[in-house]
Each structure stands twice: as C-alpha cells, then as structure tokens.
Amino acid sequence: MTHLYRPLVALAACALLVAPAGCSRAVHPVKGTVRFKDGTPLTVGRVVVDSDDGKSGSWGAIRPDGTFEMGTLAPNDGVPAGTYRVYLTNTTTPPPADLSAPFTPKPLVNTRFNDKETSGVAFEVPRETTWEIVVEKP
28, 62, 65, 80 - which has most CB atoms within 10 Å? Predict the structure, then answer.
C-alpha cells in the first residue's frame, strides 16, 4: 500500500504548489532591448507588465547592454498570452561604490515610462515576443 501512497502524496503536493501560481497558463519566451531615441541602451532598471486582473505580473531585468528577458514564475521563463501595457521601474542613476557622500538618484528616462497608463508601450504575446522599447530622456 505504501508504494501507491507516496506517488499520490507527491502528486497532491505538486498540485498544491502549482495551482496557486497559475501554471495552467503557458508562458512564451519574451526578450528585447530598451534604448533611447539616439540608439544608446538604457543600462539599468526593469521591464514590467501586469495582467489585466492584477493577479499576476512579469518582469525582466535590463542588462548593461539594454537587453532583457521576461519572466513570470521564474526568471526568464516567459510571459502568458495576452496584450500588455509595458512600463519601466528602477530607472535611476545607480549609487556610487563609495556611499560616504550624500547621494540623490536622478531619473534616466522620462517619468511617463514608469507608469503603464502613460508609457504608450504595448505588446501582444505570443504574436510579439521580441520587444524593442524606445524611451525618451527626462
């Protein structure tokens, strides 16, 4: 009897862990770049999307070359199908290595890109899975 019990317990545990995370929705690989109008990359921050119902979100860290990959359940695993308004977070000057002097971060992009309502950036997944995001300086 115990040889049947263990697989059932394992299956039930997996179901409990997976169900709340929304694994029933497949994710699609999404990658891209964030750059300024002059072609230079944005080198810090995150690209973020939220589901329309507000129950899930996806994000990708912007690398120093301006590239990113989106993740939902794990880093870089992709985005569920849907139409998303995109916004950016953490797009300020990074602190210096020496924090002995006062530091005030400065915005690197126009603040309209920090809100999904005003960014003007939207993509439809899976139709669009390579995103080119062009931002403006403050």
Answer: 62
Q: pTM for the whole thing?
A: 0.79
Average pLDDT over residues 109-115: 97
Helix or strand run (H / E) with residue 17 = helix 2-18
pLDDT of residue 98: 83
CA separation for the pair 84, 105 (Å, rounded): 28
Question: Could you give the percent of the chain with pLDDT greater than 70?
Answer: 82
Question: How many Å apart are CA 52 and CA 110, to the nearest integer?
Answer: 24
Q: SS3 helix, strand, coil % of the chain, rounded to 5?
A: 15, 35, 50
